[in-house]
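Entry: Peptide deformylase
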Amino acid sequence: MGTPSDRAPLAERVEELLAGGGPLPIVAAGDPVLRRGTEPYDGQLGPALLARFVEALRITMRAAPGVGLAAPQVGVPLRIAVIEDPAPVPEEVRLARGRVPQPFRVLVNPAYEPVGGTRAAFFEGCLSVPGWQAVVARPAEVRLTGQDEHGHTVDEVFSGWPARIVQHETDHLDGVLYLDRAESRSLSSNRAVTERWAQPTPEEAARALGFDLP
């Protein structure tokens, strides 16, 4: 645990960030905060400030809108992320991608490891890389460990689209963007994805754009 003086600068920065109210500005790719990694959360914000910060992350994620948001995406280098996915998708998409609703959750100091060797590839986007999507092959099932905002232990297996979300957000905490893991030939504008590659799976995109799927 750090001393109060160690924690003060970061707490002060978060207080300043929250002073503006409303959704927080989302940091775009190219900002070093997205690449430096994060420090583990060990009480730097204190319970009350942590609760306010978590609520600000929730408001910002929903306003974007997105299904996850990590602290570095609002300029805070702490190992904290939030996820939530109402999964408003057609049945064929739900079945192909394993996309099921996820309630709002806070991930503190999360880490993941693959469960089994199966990988799944789908188009993926990021609030810090607006306007673009690319196909990313990820483990289809992962074990996530860490804590929640109350310090309770999290040790849970995620599969399908929820597994993709927790991997994406945890990667942010390690300074990794989804583009680092993407098939570069699949990079497409949001418009192109909507007009050409909205199929439940990216097989057609892989054939047309010339990249391999796992």
